[in-house]
Design brief:
single chain, 370 residues, six-stranded antiparallel sheet, 46% helix, disordered N terminus
């Protein structure tokens, strides 16, 4: 017993669809595959961007909004309570709270019978390093959303420039036109990153979307909640450490004392990085054999890249290294402290025992005469 379908309030979706057909963009772009990758980017260009440290794009799911009230509060946040305009899929702008609440009700209306448990929208963030043109980032996010979501899911976007890193908040309606729900997983986010990086490169901005292990980095990203809690601790607003940090510190202490071993994924990460290093070395040798000057320069950059990263460092490795440094510093402080001299029993026996001298008797005061 599904409720009756309600048409969209803002704009006509056929207008955006016709514009894509006319301009050859979105799902009609010939050079883009459904997975989000472009055929024009060959392995050599990707290798050059990796070893020359091109900026890596960031795509993250920041939360899932349940019900109209939760979604309306989120739209108020990304719109800075009316100070910033929120763009719709069709390019229209939403500025007032009434319009935001109307969108929240529209997206949540088919789910009113399960409003407390069903996700109405998925919130995502697309970010680039400091110095990137914010308007270009917004255009790249729009192209990525049109490619990856198409016309099945409605979405809204808002550009934020209040931090050094320009970023765009993309909010996607969870239930699509085909009744399939939008629930991006790790592989889906990787495809979003690839499409986002390709859209930026098509606009003249160097960007890449590669896994961490291909760059020799083993530090995984933390959730937004954990990042905000750590920021409060560093700023002094809170003095209570997070449960994740306390757990990592305890495990690292056990490993440093020889009472435990590191997790299995640490050794797997090292093995995977060793395999990646061998592949990069083989690629450098093949580039040297081509006789092309540009290929020889790329081979030199590949070897310099590998020399800077002899091994991979995961989060447990980093915590263990800091723990071992603290233990070493503590042992050095104990060794530098002067040791107390303890007298031997023989010396105590040789020392003459002191005899207690008799104390003079106490004199009683004379009685007073009356």
């Amino acid at each position: 017993m599904k409720p009756t379908f309600r048409p969209r309030v803002f704009g006509d979706p056929n207008m955006g669809y016709a514009a894509q057909m006319r301009n050859g963009t979105g799902r009609f772009a010939r050079s883009i595959t459904p997975s989000g990758s472009r055929h024009s980017d060959d392995a050599k260009a990707t290798l050059a961007r990796i070893v020359r440290k091109s900026p890596e794009v960031m795509v993250k799911v920041t939360g899932r909004k349940k019900g109209a009230k939760h979604l309306g509060a989120h739209l108020q946040y990304i719109g800075r309570h009316g100070k910033l305009a929120i763009e719709t899929r069709d390019g229209e702008q939403i500025e007032t709270k009434a319009d935001m609440d109307r969108v929240a009700d529209e997206w949540s209306d088919p789910l009113y019978w399960r409003q407390g448990t069903t996700v109405s929208a998925v919130a995502m963030v697309f970010s680039m390093p400091e110095g990137t043109n914010p308007e270009t980032v917004k255009q790249a996010v729009r192209e990525t959303a049109e490619l990856m979501l198409g016309d099945n899911h409605d979405w809204l976007m808002a550009l934020h420039t209040d931090t050094p890193r320009p970023h765009v908040h993309l909010t996607v309606q969870a239930e699509g036109m085909d009744r399939k729900r939008f629930d991006p997983r790790r592989e889906d986010l990787f495809h979003f990153r690839e499409a986002f990086a390709a859209a930026l490169r098509s606009r003249g901005i160097e960007a890449e979307a590669t896994p961490r292990y291909t760059r020799g980095q083993g530090k995984a990203g933390a959730s937004m909640a954990l990042t905000q809690m750590r920021a409060k601790i560093l700023s002094g607003a809170s003095k209570v450490p997070t449960e994740a940090d306390v757990k990592q510190a305890r495990e690292a202490m056990q490993v440093a004392l020889g009472k435990a071993q590191q997790p299995a994924f640490v050794s797997k990460s090292r093995a995977r990085w060793d395999d990646t290093r061998r592949r990069f070395e083989v690629a450098a040798e093949q580039l040297d054999k081509t006789g092309n000057r540009a290929d020889r320069e790329l081979a030199r950059d590949v070897r310099a890249f590998l020399q800077e990263r002899p091994t991979i460092e995961t989060v447990p490795d980093r915590v263990l290294r800091k723990t071992e440094q603290r233990l070493k510093a503590g042992r050095e402080r104990e060794a530098q402290q002067p040791q107390r001299s303890v007298a031997s029993p023989e010396k105590e026996q040789r020392q003459p025992q002191r005899q207690h001298e008799p104390q003079p008797p106490k004199r009683t005061p004379p009685a007073r005469r009356r």
